Amino acid sequence: MLSIKNLKVNREGLEILKGISLNIKKGETHVLMGPNGSGKSTLANSLMANPDYEVTSGSIVLNQSDITKLDVSERAKKGLFLAFQYPVEVPGVPLIQFLKLAYTEKTGTSITPGAFLKLINEVAKDLDIKQSLLDRYLNEGFSGGEKKKIEILQMAVLNPEFVILDETDSGLDVTALKTIFKYVNQIKISKNMGVLVVTHYSRILEFLKPDFVHIMKEGKLVKSGGIELAEEIEKDGYKTLVDVN
Predict the structure, then answer these.
(1) Is residue 63 part of a domain?
(2) In angstroms, rounded to a whole number, what is the distance separating the alpha carbons of residues 71 and 54?
(3) In principle, which of 44, 80, 153, 244 could form an S-S bond with 166, CB 3.0–4.6 Å?
């Protein structure tokens, strides 16, 4: 289980998260929604130890191990993965080389180049990633959709137990959205993976069937429910939902 207990987080001296508590079990999909500036991406970055965010109290526990003070590489080795909202370009670093290094660091094992290429090519086919992209530098000159697919490719390579997708759906056309989340669903089921999806858009629910939907406002979780909660937001917006809490 990924257990977040009364998490409070500051950025540049300002408190952004004001006591977040959330439990995500293996095999569950949780969707986190809320107005702009509510703290959704702050939670995602804090879970993955972004040094720009200071945890002032509370804890993050992964499979009964407290990871609150661990750095990003240590959290990754323990089975946590974050797909970034804005994946960065890394000129000069070959994509395949980067993925193989990440695999070796995560697993602590070596793999032959042939076996690794077979793994990459199988996932790339499922995600409709062109071979020409695999032969380039990491994200250099990639479109927004291509970058998001490479994030999911990296997820598959690292085989985490819990995944945080920070607005992975933003900027995607319907075809890319369907391809990515069909694969996320597939690997979630086959690997019994826990998933937290941060999003603004209920359209994602056409391709991803969550077990729980949570609404965040002003650094707090103000309401939780099932898929009907996201449908209510689509119909009436956030104001009528959160102002009564």
Answers:
(1) yes
(2) 12
(3) 44
